[in-house]
Amino acid sequence: MEEYPELSFSLEEVNGGMLATFEKKTAQKTAQKTTKELIIDLLLENPVYTTEDIKRLLKKGDGTIKGHLADLKNKGMIVREGGRKSGHWKVISKRRP
Questions:
Q1: In a 10 Å sphere around its CB, with 0-12 CB exposed, 13-18 middle and 19+ buried, how is residue 78 labelled?
Q2: pTM
Q3: Mean of the pLDDT values across residues 40-61?
Q4: 3-class DSSP state for residue 36?
Q5: Segments forming the whole domain that contains residue 78
């Protein structure tokens, strides 16, 4: 798809057949949430989510999630209360990270 960088293509097997999906990439990102906003949404939904849970749900790497969590903590937007296994997250501020 190098000839058409504005298009993305995916192919998946569905009910014994193949489903091809083409999407046109646009420059408009205003409607998309940032990873930090998605993390805050997840923590509001379930404060006991672990880093592993967030990584799996957002399909992001370990370093990415840990970096975003550290940044959110440094900005005072979230805090971790309790231990690593028995603790939970508390969202302090929902303002745009």
A1: buried
A2: 0.65
A3: 94
A4: helix
A5: 35-91
